[in-house]
Amino acid sequence: MERPSGWLEGYPVEVAGGDLYGDAAQPVASCWKAVAEGLAAISDGGPSAVQDVAARHAADLGLAFRVTGDEDERAWPLTAMPLIVGAAEWAQVERGLIQRATLLERLAADIYGPQRLVRDGHLPAAVVAGSPFFVRKILGHGPRRGHFIHVYSVDLARGARGQWRVLQDRVRLASGVGYALENRLAMSRTAGNLLVDNHARRLAEFFARMRDGMAASCERDLPRIALLTPGRFNQTYAEQAHLARYLGLPLVEGRDLSVIDNRLYVGTIAGPKRVDALWRWINTTSLDPLSFDARSQIGVANLFEAWASGGVEMANWPGTEVLESPAFAAFMPRLCKVMLGEDPILPNIATWWCGQAAESATVADRLDELALLPAFGMPVEGLPGRQPVAGTDLSADERKDLLEALRRRPMDYCGQEIVHLSTTPAIIDGQIVPRPFTVRAFVARAADGSWTVMPGGFARLSSSTAMPTSLMGAGDLSADVWVVDERPAGHIAAPRQVEEPPISRGGGILASQAADNLYWFGRYNERAETVVRIVRTLLGSSMEGDNFIEAQAGGVLPELAHLLVHFGAIDQATGRMGAAFVSAKALTETRLPGGVAALMRQRMQVGMSLRERFARDFWRIVSRPMPSIDASRPQSMLSSARWLTEHFSALAGLVSENMVRSAAWRFLQIGQRIERAQAICQVAGKLGDGEGDALGVLLDLCDSQIIYRSRYLTGPMTNPVRDLVLLDPDNPRALQYQVAQIVSHLAALPSLRDDNIPEPPLRAARALMGDLQASLATDMTPHRLQEICGQLNELSDEISTRYFLQFDREEAERRTRLL
Hints:
single chain, disordered N terminus, 21 strands, four-stranded parallel beta sheet, CP_ATPgrasp_2, 12% strand, 819 residues, globular, Dna Ligase, domain 1, 4 domains, 28 helices, alpha+beta
């Protein structure tokens, strides 16, 4: 067999455990050759160069993941070399996946219905009732259309002779389906036309059919389907946000939702809006604290009553996770024969449930040949976690303890054969080397209830030859899976005839929590920019004159330091130090709430909950780390401050040019305008009564030097400066302009009233606007500006009360401290 040249020329095709490339038939091997040569041409260098390109595209797409126990996300480890599977080989996998999904659907219907399998002795009762994921309360409550499973995923292993087997069924969450999509998007950018040239099947049709299937289950025209997330600290939150954005689904948390008259509603700025279906990404026991786990803080009260009575559809149906347990895997070959009258096309790895005496004895006797794992997916005595542990990896004491635990409670354990994974070419440290892999494949229901299989999936390349797991760990890689046809016409079908939807405008529904996050994103961003502007002025002044602020008594530098103290960027002691030290602390402060680093961290935290709403370019800029700050080099710090100013300007430009003028954009703007209005009041209160230098600095901070010079032929004078930065309705950096914008945005938001009387936030904003329009520059004393700050605080409270979910007292007090 002819083998590809170039990057794959020295690749060890004869790998002991089998290799995806080494085992490939000639037509598929030709695809490997074409892809390797194409990537080499794109990179214009070695494998490391194209790997860098793929990593950059993955970062631009916002791909990230979180290892369990980590607080921060990690960059998504995408390898530029895809897994290539021929259409003939994949066809067998596809048939097996549909058979497996059909079997799991029938098992779920029996477990929560007649339970004939247990009654007839085909399945031990303990395998069902012993699982912590079996939900007795759901017995007798089936889905209206008879579909317990809408989306099914499965981890597959490929053996030495090219046979595919099931490692683990996943019916609770289809985690990885979003990463399969994002891997393909990143590879499309990296590989250019290589996908089309090699006849790789597209993924878009799968996602369209999956969404249609969820919509069809609602039995209502234009149903609203929401993706229920546990929140931004979940390990797969980035994936959930990408999926919600791609499929056009609202991304909601439990606190966004409420049940009214056995129907589910999402709280929005326009009042409650009905939700017809939930694609849940949380455990069944966490769904409803009144019906299941009372400790759950991510569920929805009375949700059980809503779905049990048909008020909301669920994908997948609650309780289906009982099918995921390794104990079930021990009986799947038999159950396939009983339920379908067929042998499994995709057998699972050999599994022994120790709840049966003979199987328990077999596992104990063959411990050195097998792996041990919890029977029901929960940690048990003698095993450190939920993942398989090879018997040969146990110490003598660990082995003794485990055998004793197995003797006491054998039903808690399963034994499994140790899987030797096939390998695939991967780019590691600039070389093409074999790496063991697993593939997570996905199956979903189409609108007619039939199964559709994703032509590809999400591949995980292990960093070692250890036991395969389902989690991405440090050092692991992901890869796009290409299913390629030998002939380009082999997979081309007529495009689906999709009914044209009715015309719709705007940005869709805006949940109250999302509006809250947008509002605070705008505030944190604007506050950080204000502090940076002050720091930039401080640094510029310090390099021209005195090096210590306290030596400038009566000058403008102490006033700027006092402003930084007032904003919470530095403490009082720091405010008496040198300008360079003050600036460095203000930029890097994380302990105090007003430091730039702290504010940008807070902005990032609320921004994480808005991923599905922000364009990728916007999110890429938001995610950039702060530049390094060196207090010993004022010029370098000044450059960093200028970089930050450009950073804020870039975000402002993207908001101005790219965001639809929807309610989401308005809340982002309202937060920014309120924060800017307060900052203008505070800065003008400190500097507006000064002379010369202070008034010049005020003009600089309000970006109004040029317009002042064009209007007045004299240097800065008190009342002209006050008028320009406080009362000029045409100056986009003036106080009155900010309030006018707030009024405009509030007036455009939906009202809950039927009598056309303005709601409290709009009335408060208009009252403040009227006061400013009737004011003169001489009225804008520091005392009056302090009063306006108070009015802006009251306006913020009115907005929060009307539009946002109400926080607990601790959260409310924390945010108040930032004002």
